[in-house]
Design brief:
With about 160 residues, this protein is of the alpha+beta class. The protein is about 30% helix and about 25% strand. The strands form two sheets. Strands 1, 2, 3, 4, 5, 8, 9 and 10 form an eight-stranded mixed sheet that branches. A two-stranded antiparallel ribbon has the order 6-7. The longest helix is centred in the first third of the chain and has 15 residues, at about 1-15.
Length: about 160
């Protein structure tokens, strides 16, 4: 009986803190695309308010499935911050968990014939570029974009968020 009550109480808690974004599953990860826009830091905080972090895209398969899900949900018409930056570790892009970001194809786009990232010391945060089929580029962290978050945690929390959205 207690095992049933604990997940139910977690679901009730999540009902009080419902997301203001679109939610869907991609490769067993709950993805939340928030409606609001802001700087990279502001959107990182917005994801944390959802019990999530900015999305980490560490495989070509996940990127493919994520972009397909964005298309299916009619969400390919804007730029999105993702959880990669080189702030604090100049010259090496890292995800929020500290792991290195994979460079080159199939993740990073081309801008004026040059492979991204190409912003030097100024452009240190990573976003998915709407006009480049959601391939990545580096940008000023103060630019204003939407964000894609992913829920961390166990399957019960993910199921509750999906059931009670």
């Amino acid at each position: 009986m207690r095992l049933f009550l604990l997940p139910l109480s977690l679901c009730l808690l999540l009902l009080c803190c419902d997301s203001d974004g679109v939610q869907f599953l991609v490769d067993n990860k709950l993805i939340i695309v928030l409606d609001q826009k802001g700087t990279w830091d502001q959107m990182s905080i917005a994801c944390r308010r959802e019990g999530a972090r900015m999305v980490k895209i560490d495989s070509a398969d996940f990127m493919y499935n994520l972009v397909n899900s964005l298309r299916q949900n009619d969400l390919v018409n804007q730029n999105y911050w993702i959880g990669a930056t080189e702030v604090g570790h100049e010259g090496i892009f890292r995800w929020q968990d500290g792991t290195k970001v994979k460079m080159g194809t199939p993740f990073w786009g081309i801008h004026q014939g040059v492979q991204e990232p190409n912003g030097g010391n100024l452009e240190t945060c990573v976003f998915m570029v709407q006009s480049k089929f959601l391939y990545w580029a580096d940008a000023l962290c103060s630019d204003i974009f939407s964000v894609i978050c992913e829920v961390q945690g166990n399957g019960i929390l993910i199921l509750c968020k999906l059931l009670y959205k």
